[in-house]
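Discussion board: Methods & Data

I've been asked by a reviewer to show the raw model output for two of the constructs in my manuscript, not just the figures. I'm not sure how much to include, so I'm pasting the format here to get opinions. Each protein appears as its amino acid sequence followed by a line of discrete structure tokens. Is this the kind of thing reviewers expect to see in a supplement, or should I convert it first? Here is construct A:
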Amino acid sequence: MLSSIEFVRQSLELHLFFARIMKEHSFFLEIGFTQKDSNLILKADTLRMEFDNLLADTISLSNGVVSSSVLQSGEVITPFTLKAEIASAYFTGIDIPTDLTEAEEALMGDELMVVNPMLEQEVFMLNQRAMRLVSALVQFKTRLLSGVISCKIFTSNYPLLIDHILREAKFYYQLIQRLQNREDINLEKEAYEQEVFWNRIMAEHSKFIRGLLDPTENELINTANNFGNEFDKLTKEAIEAMDAAMPIAKVTEDSLKATIEIKKFKQQGTQGLVDCKIKSIIIPLLGDHTLREANHYLRLLKIFKTAKK
């Protein structure tokens, strides 16, 4: 059973990463609709602001509680997040609360020794609230995906992107649920599941980037395409290792190398988007969003690799 200290720390670290991801999913959906679907724009906007509030409350509980390793990993914010938010707010006219990013920049990590029972209760309630909110977002994304596939709704977001962010929301919900049940994490079992999940996510990021670049950006398109193929292969290998209960150490090593490389690609890409050096229809915040997910996965892979030694 998870200790009180681990429950509090892991819960807050999870929300620092995923609540921001979910609020940005809502933002990406919001800017993809046409004026005809003003009701969907409003629904996405409402969800986005609710996740803003969830993230704000997470930040207020996190100072001196979460691990320095998480804060320094680049999964909470990157050096580009603030600029990407300012540029994306400018392009869309949507008010993105950059004060949350500034508050995250000021967060201090610590190795928590004791947990105040009141803090533990607050985190439990925060988790309950997050589950309700994620559940509402899952329902919205499910309805949207169905509408897009049946040609009842038009959006500038790929059907695969909607399916992709739907899977991420369901994954987030499951992780909160496990924390609420105080489940201990089996790192070996976790490695199989996480590597299958995140290798597929990295492959799809590469394909989205490939498809949103201007057709003249041949070099970047080819690089993105190669990453897509590489992570498709790694996803297949992770599934085969899991199904055959084979050691996953080699897949972890290969995934680590590939994720280090795709992180560099996304870093350069986000910098290029923020500095207006890349021709594309990629909103700058999407570049930063995919970079943070690569940073998150990189931290997990390093944990899995160390655990196997």
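Construct B, same format:
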Amino acid sequence: MLTRSFARPLLAAPVLVLALGLAACGSDDSGSASDDAGSSTPPSSASSSSSAPASTDAAGACTYTPDGTQAQVTPPPADPSVTGDVKVTMDTSVGEFHATLDAGKTPCTVSSFVSLADQGYFDGTTCHRMTTSGIYVLQCGDPTGTGTGGPGYSFADELSGKETYGPGTLAMANAGPNTNGSQFFIVYGDSPLPPQYTVFGTVDDATVSLIEDVAKDGTTPPQDGAPNTPVDIKTVTTD
């Protein structure tokens, strides 16, 4: 699964548990991916929390649960702070990434992302993982750059069970069910991942093109590792 790092289980340390190694908020580089659909493990993140409550309670409030690690930020409010489409600009070392977040379908995920961005959590971080075989993703959102970092809380998945991961998809990495934190991945090529990663938005074609250019320069180690052309996030702003 995509965990905070790719579940190397790509995200062996919060690995992209992208069954190919996408682990977003988990804590493993080695094996947070629940399935392996290719040579890469899903995006994963190394989260220490094995499960979290449903994303919203009966009143529609979000639940953000301390994950046992040191808190890095103030948790988002229980009441989703945003609605509708949210525009995001990530100023990176390879150009601007432009995204549109869907708070209508994934209110708790988008509220968390916006809260982290507003607190400067993503500023000065590096996208620590890229996969160039099997699945095609760039994973970011870990200030430690190891795939094991997170904000100090986790929250539940917001899934329909019909998620697909084509070019332009913006989704959460995780270390297993309901272990979302801060790690996310951007898909730049069709990736056969299971519908286990919350899709909370999209990026535009120009952003996909920038990431494709980075992928052409390869990774270390090959196919699943740090991009040889560093992708450093300078700031993340929301409209």
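Answer (T.O., handling editor elsewhere):
This is acceptable in a supplement if you add a one-line summary per construct. For B, something like: Residues 23 and 44 are 1 Å apart (CA to CA).
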